[in-house]
Design a protein that fits this description.
This protein has about 350 residues and is an alpha/beta fold. The chain has helices at about 1-10, 20-25, 60-75, 100-110, 160-175, 180-185, 190-210, 235-245, 280-290, 305-310, 325-335, and strands spanning about 15, 30-35, 80-85, 90-95, 95, 115-125, 140-145, 215-220, 245-250, 260, 295, 315-320. The structure holds S-adenosylmethionine.
Length: about 350
């Protein structure tokens, strides 16, 4: 045990070049706060490893069994307050979806003692176009959050805060925010004076959303919308009667949904074919870890998990079977400024 603890000290903030299962076995029980990873998908890519990389098994059952072996080790090494996040992609075989991620998640909860806390869906804003005229383009992937006790750390407030939501929506909604209300003010029976005031207050609310002071707002215009709070007496009703409109500003405590919308990221000079977005990993760190915690990625590829950890003041351990990717991940980490995203908790 002492040896294992001593060993752990030597691999903190390192990328280990080796096989996930073998390397995980050397890590002591209950020593990691978060395991987060995207294992190789089934029959998707050749990562060029000379050793037997996961994903190239002959059958789906063999693949799932190998993944579960890794998963069991992850379950062993996390603390009682810890969690495991696995991101998996699906696969068509003979024209039919295999539902690989769900088969894995079901197997994990049936065969180990974990709880499945959430399936967070990554909605890809720029999915890879596919040519099949008789299929829609797959544009989502699950990230499963598992915990091993009811005591898991979960900082919901920090997940997808106002600045993050704006970033994910900026391309689609940024320019259009509140736009419909201008048309509705024009179409309303408000006096010219009231219309002028309504537009100027609307512009103020839009700029508050854009600067992050509020999350969003709703506008109620007399004769266009239903009365706020069912028309009960109060400040809003009298505002509506006097000025012809009212603006309800919404900040904090927004509903935290199990969806992350963001594009597939491109990194200059990247040599890895399947990099997951730093933005998503950032959100999971905010949700599931504190500054100084230990995160581990058993299939670290180009090093994204470590990059985000270093920026956000978390410690990391990365495992990768392919030497070329190990070197690339180390380079990415060395070129970073430690703690450059320390405004995050
Ligand atoms: C989907 S990629 C991970 C990409 C990573 N999330 C990133 O952002 O770069 C999976 C990685 O697992 C590696 N891999 C495959 N079998 C492995 C094994 N048995 N042990 C460790 N790594 C393995 C592959 O070489 C590949 O780089």
């Amino acid at each position: 045990m002492l040896k294992e603890r001593e060993y752990l000290e030597t691999i903190i903030n390192q990328i280990i070049c080796g096989d996930a299962i073998e390397e995980l076995k050397k890590i002591p029980n209950g020593s990691i706060d978060l395991v987060i990873t995207s294992p190789p998908y089934f029959h998707q890519r050749d990562y060029g490893s000379e050793m037997l990389g996961i994903g190239n098994e002959k059958t789906l059952d063999e693949y799932l069994n190998n993944l579960i072996k890794v998963f069991r080790e992850c379950q062993r090494i996390i603390k009682p307050s810890g969690s495991i996040v696995f991101n998996l992609g699906d696969k068509y075989e003979k024209g039919s979806l295999l539902l690989v991620p769900y088969r894995f998640a079901i197997k994990a909860i049936q065969e180990t003692n974990v709880k499945l806390i959430n399936e967070v869906t990554w909605v890809k804003l720029n999915p890879t176009p596919r040519q099949d005229p008789k299929k829609l383009v797959p544009a989502k992937e699950p990230f499963f959050i598992f915990a091993k006790s009811n005591n898991y750390y979960f900082n919901k407030e920090c997940f997808l805060g106002p600045a993050d939501s704006r970033r994910t929506k900026s391309k689609r909604a940024g320019e259009n925010i509140g736009k419909k209300y201008f048309d509705q003010i024009n179409d309303s029976n408000l006096s010219d004076e009231q219309k002028k005031l309504a537009k100027s207050e609307l512009l103020k609310a839009i700029s508050e959303v854009k600067s992050g002071r509020i999350d969003s707002f709703r506008m109620k215009i007399r004769g266009i919308h239903s009365m706020p709070y069912g028309g009960q007496n109060g400040g809003r009703k009298s505002h509506l009667e006097k000025d012809g409109f009212t603006i309800i500003k919404i900040s904090g405590n927004s509903i935290k949904k199990d969806i992350i919308e963001c594009p597939v990221e491109t990194i200059r000079g990247n040599i890895h074919p399947a990099v997951y977005p730093e933005f998503i990993i950032q959100q999971f760190f905010k949700l599931l870890t504190k500054r100084g915690d230990m995160v581990l990625d058993p299939f670290i590829g180009s090093g994204t998990t470590a990059v985000v950890a270093k920026r956000m003041g978390r410690n990391f351990i990365g495992i990768e079977i392919n030497q070329k990717y190990c070197l690339y991940a180390r380079q990415r980490i060395d070129n970073l400024c430690e703690g450059s995203d320390l405004e995050f908790v």
